[in-house]
Amino acid sequence: MQISLEKSLVKNLMVHSHYERYRSMGEDIMQSIRDKTCPGNDFLGWVDLPSSLKSEELERINEVAQNLRKISEVVVVVGIGGSYLGARAVIESQKSAFKSDGCEVLYAGHQLSPGYLTELSQYLEGKKWSIIVISKSGTTTEPAIAFRYLRNMLTSRFGETAMKERVVAITDSSKGALRKLADANGLQSFVIPDDVGGRFSVFTPVGLLPIAVAGFDIKQLIQGAKQMEEQVWSDKKNNIALDYAAIRNVLYQNGNTTEVLVNYHHKFHFIAEWWKQLFGESEGKDGKGIFPASVDLTTDLHSMGQYIQDGKRNLFETVVKFENTNAKVEQIGHDDENLDNLNYLEGKSMDFVNKNALEGTMLAHNSGGVPNLMLKIENDGIDNIGGLLYFFMITCAISGLMLQVNPFNQPGVEDYKRNMFALLQKPGFEEKYKELQILRKE
Ligand code: PA5
Fold first, then answer.
1. Which terminus of the chain has fewer Cβ atoms in its 10 Å neighbourhood, N or C?
2. What's the rounded mean pLDDT across residues 319-339?
3. Complex ipTM value
4. How far is CA 302 from the centre of its chain?
5. What pLDDT does residue 161 have?
6. Which positions are catalytic residues (predicted)?
7. pLDDT mean over 157-177
8. From ligand 1's centre to the CA of 139, what distance in Å?
9. Catalytic residue check, 267
């Protein structure tokens, strides 16, 4: 597994002494994470998860996954935020864009859009299907509503025993409505450790069970994460997590308050979605934080590209480059008439064109005043994806602590919930309801 950080296109836009200051602050921060003395220190269970995961636990996850695969054509993963994005990020990075490997994984409970569940239920009609329901708190509204809808459908289709055979719950060991429901119905279940928050939970059953159900090798994923864990904790000098966290903070202080994660790989979209949640929810608080955005290139060069090249200069980019793809390489063929003027590319691969687009775009954006970092990854194998996710999590923790926020809480998320509950007239929210009625009239 190899991931490296290329910094040549940020150096000219950074004051070196500022970088050195953040870099050395980062070393102290890593020590405080190790000693569990940093803010949010009761949520550090993910830090050594790759190296401490027991093989029996992975075996049990694989066993339950195999059973679900045997009895299901489709498994619906019900969850939102950190209880959904990690699994989807890894699955989408590995699966074919056009077909599933035996058992299809679909998602629900990640929004409230009307019509989605109806369309899902139509798609499931006549198929064999099961549910993995994931919620750490066990009380999140979106997945709770979807789970109520889907479990009613499931029992009317497969009978009462379906709850035991076709539903797996992943939740807290003792607290929350989902734990009560799981225990009352004798559901198969896994526990989310108390000291691992949602967006840091991809290497717990939250991520691992759906990934295994989709047919991917969770041992390889963990192996890659473990290698990255060893790499970032063993060498302070050549430490890409410290480098990336320090550079992000220098750029932020320079006024580059939006980071755009850029990819040129059609399977990367959901890793970027996971990354936005990780950094957005971890750093965006107390009036501070880099705004995490993402683009899929070259697609978005024909939309967001204009803004990046030429719009407000508060951006920096982190470009993800896969050195080799596992894909079969398409070659550009010959055309006698050459009406499309493409014969100059005859015999060249799509990968060659894509890489030159990447290089040309980085140089263009950099001359347009956008600092560019590049993460080079050997290939898109699942072990490298495991390493990349660990790298982003540890960088996010260090970077958030450099910003002097607690990266492991999300107090701001509660505000929308309070208002939504009040407007829905949930018992206990009567005062808030009155307050909002006054605001509505104003
Ligand atoms: O990172 C987080 O903690 C959040 O994004 C949660 O994962 C998300 O809100 C879902 O919460 P829960 O798993 O309690 O349903």
1. C
2. 89
3. 0.98
4. 25
5. 93
6. 281, 417
7. 95
8. 10
9. no
